[in-house]
Amino acid sequence: MAATPHEPEGLEGRARTAYADGDLEGSLGAWEQLHSSHLSTGDVLGASEAAVMVATHLLIDTGLMAPVRGWLGRAERLLEPRGETPLHASIAAIRGYERLFSGDVRAASTWSHRAVDLGTRHDQPDATVIGQTCTARIVLLEGDLETGLALLEEVGSRLVAGDATDLVTGMMLCEVICAAQGLAMHDLAREWTDVMESWRHRSGFGGLHGRCRVHRAELLRISGPADEAEAEALGACDDLRPWLRREYGWPLVELGAIRLRRGDLDGAEEAFAEANAHAWCPQPGLALTHLARGRTEVAAEMIAEAVAHPLDIPWKERPPFGDLRLAPLLHAQGEIAQAAGDAAGCRAAADRLHQIAARFPSRSLQAMAALTRARADVLAGDLTPAREAAQHAVAAWADLEAPYDSACARTVLAAVHLAAGSEVLARAEWTAARQVFAAFGARGRVAEISGLLGDGEATGATVGTPPPGATGSFVARDGLRSIRFGSAEVLLSDLKGFRYLERLLADPGREFHALDLVSLEQGDADERRGTPTQSGLPVLDAEAREAYRRQLADVDADIEEARENNDLARQELAERDRDYLIAALTSAVGLAGRERVTGSSAERARTSVARSLRYALQRLEESDPVIAGHLERALSTGTYCSYRPDPLVPVRWTTTVSEPGGARRTKEPQAR
Length: 672
Fold this sequence. Notes:
- By secondary structure, the chain is an alpha+beta fold.
- The chain has 30 helices and ten strands.
- β7 and β8 (640-643) form a beta hairpin.
C-alpha cells in the first residue's frame, strides 16, 4: 500500500515533488515535518537527514545563512552520541559553503577538507564533490589560479562522469561556472556553460534550468547579440522566480546589465531597482545607468559608495569577499571618473585594478586594467601610454570574442587620438566602434557615436515622420509579420508585441485596456469580457509567511548564540538575515494586518503588454528605424494603450484581424 502524505515516505516524496514544481516553501515545510515525524518515533538518523536537507535547500535557494546554521546544529546535536557517521560528511560539506559565504575562509577550508575526507571514507560522493568545489573556490580566491583551476577541472570531470546526484551535479556545475565568471574567464565559463546546457536537457529539474539560462545570458551579454541575451535573461527570471528568494536579484542584475548595453535605460533601471528590493547589490549597473542618462555626479557618488563599502552578502554568483568582487566596480569607477574629468579618482581606480589583475592574471581582468589605465592617462595628458593601453584592451577583448567591450575600448582610443590632434584617426575608431555596436544591438551607443561623428546615422532622433497621405501594411502570414511603410518592407517573426500593436493600428485613437489586449491576443475576449479583474496574488502566501517566521526564529537564536560567544561578525551577518526576513514579512501585510497582494490581473497585463511592445519595436528598429520611429512616437502605453498618429499626417494601415473561431482576414483602412 502506498505511503500517505503524512507518513515519512510520503513526506519525503512530497518534499521532492514540491521542490521540482517550484514550491520552495512547500518543500521546506515537508522536510521540516519529516524531521518532526522522525523525532516523534525516535528515528534520530532520519531526523538528522531531514534537517540536513532543510539546511541544503536554505543554502541553495535563500541565501540566509543563520537558518542554515540552525538546522545543521540540530543535526549535529542529534548525532553527537553516535560518533562519526556518513551523514557528517554532508554536514561538513554544507558547513564549508556556509562559512565561505559568511567570509570565514579559514573555517571554510577546514570544513571543505573534512567533507572530502569523510565523503571519501564513507562513500558519500555528493559530500566529496561539494567539498572539492568549495576548496577550489577558496584556492582561487586566494590567488592560486593554477592549483584552483586544476581542482575545478577535476570537479568538472567527476560531475560529467555522473559521480553525484542530479541536484548536486547541477549546483556544482553552476559553481564551476560562477568561479570562472568571478575571475572574468569568460572562455572557460563558456565551455562549462555548454556542458551544463547539455546536462540540463537530460537531467535538470527545478531551478537548475533557470540557473543555466542566467549563465547563458551572462555570456551573450559578452558576445552578443543583445536581443538574444535579453530574451535569455527574461526567461531565466521567469524560470527562477518560484525557487529563489534574496538570490533572485542575480538574474535581475543580469537583465539590467543587458538592457543597459542595449540602451534601454528605463528597462535597466527597473531591473536594478527590483534587484535592490531583493537586498541584492545593483552596482555597478545602476551607477552606469545614471551615467548614461547624463547624471555624472549621481553615478560618481553611487560607485564611490559601492567601492568603499561592498555588500557582504552570501552570493554564489560573485566572489563573496576579497579583491575580485571589486574588479567590476573599479572598472565602472574609471569610466565614470573619466566622464567627470576626475583625474585623481580615475588614477586611483586604475592602480587598484592593476593590482587585482596582477594577482589574478586573467585576460579579461588585464584588459579591464589596461582600459582604466588608458582613461587615467588621457585625463593626465600622457597620450603615448594611453594609446598603448587602449590598443591592448581593444585587441584583448577582440581575441576574447567580447565585441561590445572591444568597441568601448575603441572609443577611449578615439579620445586619445582626438587629444593628440588627429581627428581623422579618432573618426576611424568611432566608425569601427559604431559598426560593432550596431551588430551587437547597442542602440544607445550607436546614437552616441553618430552624434560624435555628426552624420546622424541610425540615431533615431529625426526618423519616423511619415509623408502626407502615407499608407502602411501590418499583416501576419505563416508565422511571420510583413510590415510595409511607404516603399519599405520588413519581414520579421510574428512577435506577441506585434499582435498587440496590430490591434492598436486597426483602430487609431481608440484606447484599449491592457487586459483587453491580452485577451484579444489570446483569442478569448468574449470569455473574459465582463469578468471582474482579479485582485492578485499574495506577496507571500500563508505557507511562505509561516516558513519565514520559522526561519526568523532560527535567526534570532543564531543572534543570541553569537552574542553569548562575542562573535560580532556572525552577529552582524545574522542581523542582516533578520532584516531581510522582517522586510519580506512586512511587505506581505498592509494596514490593519490585511494580506497585501501583488501582481493583479491589470498590473500583470500592463507590465506584460508594455514589455512586449517595447521588445517588438526594438526588433523592428534594427531592420527599419523609420517605421519604428513613427510607431514609437505615436504609441501610448500603460493601463490603457493607443495608437495616435499626428492628425496632420495620418497613416492608413492595412492590418490582419481575427475572426470568431480563429480565422483571420485582412482589414483595409477605413476612410477618415
